[in-house]
């Protein structure tokens, strides 16, 4: 009789697209209640199979905020491996890869209200860039780089899109 050794679960890597939407020295953030704390997140979310990152960020922003946006450029690629940040190392940990794009509203930036908000979302707010370092934006590592966009030009676009 052959015994089988249990295999660890297949890795679950989630890809997502997030938006840094700037308008008149402010950035649009989603207010949320997450893990019993009030915080903010960038609008955006999971990429669907067969969907490009730039299409995903436009769709997610519209769903969550009601805004239509133009994608200017890729700012950063963020990776999060849950086991490296205190999540259980039993194979259920999360691994996320997020493409974070600089976006510009193409419609009225003050007409907000998405039709498919996240469960944790409690509102939307235009936050002055100067206030971002002390704003409870998650992940914390994005606070200063986004605030710096008010006086530092963004890096050159490194996103090639869906190319063969």
Automatic annotation (TrEMBL):
<dbReference type="InterPro" id="IPR020084">
    <property type="entry name" value="NUDIX_hydrolase_CS"/>
</dbReference>
<keyword id="KW-0378">Hydrolase</keyword>
<dbReference type="Pfam" id="PF00293">
    <property type="entry name" value="NUDIX"/>
</dbReference>
<comment type="similarity">
    <text>Belongs to the Nudix hydrolase family.</text>
</comment>
<protein>
    <submittedName>
        <fullName>NUDIX domain-containing protein</fullName>
    </submittedName>
</protein>
<dbReference type="InterPro" id="IPR020476">
    <property type="entry name" value="Nudix_hydrolase"/>
</dbReference>
<dbReference type="InterPro" id="IPR000086">
    <property type="entry name" value="NUDIX_hydrolase_dom"/>
</dbReference>
<feature type="domain" description="Nudix hydrolase">
    <location>
        <begin position="12"/>
        <end position="152"/>
    </location>
</feature>
<dbReference type="InterPro" id="IPR015797">
    <property type="entry name" value="NUDIX_hydrolase-like_dom_sf"/>
</dbReference>
């Amino acid at each position: 009789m052959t015994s089988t050794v249990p295999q660890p679960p297949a890795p679950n890597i989630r890809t997502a697209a997030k938006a840094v939407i700037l308008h008149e020295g402010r950035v649009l953030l989603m207010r949320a209640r997450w893990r019993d704390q009030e915080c903010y997140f960038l609008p955006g979310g999971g990429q669907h199979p067969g969907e490009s990152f730039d299409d995903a960020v436009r769709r997610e922003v519209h769903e969550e905020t009601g805004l239509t946006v133009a994608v200017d450029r890729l700012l950063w690629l963020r990776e999060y491996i849950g086991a490296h940040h205190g999540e259980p190392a039993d194979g259920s940990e999360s691994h996320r890869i997020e493409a974070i794009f600089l976006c510009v509203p193409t419609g009225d930036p003050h007409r907000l209200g998405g039709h498919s908000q996240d469960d944790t979302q409690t509102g939307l707010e235009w936050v002055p860039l100067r206030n971002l370092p002390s704003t409870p934006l998650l992940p914390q590592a994005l606070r200063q780089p986004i605030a710096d966009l008010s006086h530092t030009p963004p890096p050159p676009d490194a996103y090639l899109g869906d190319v063969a």
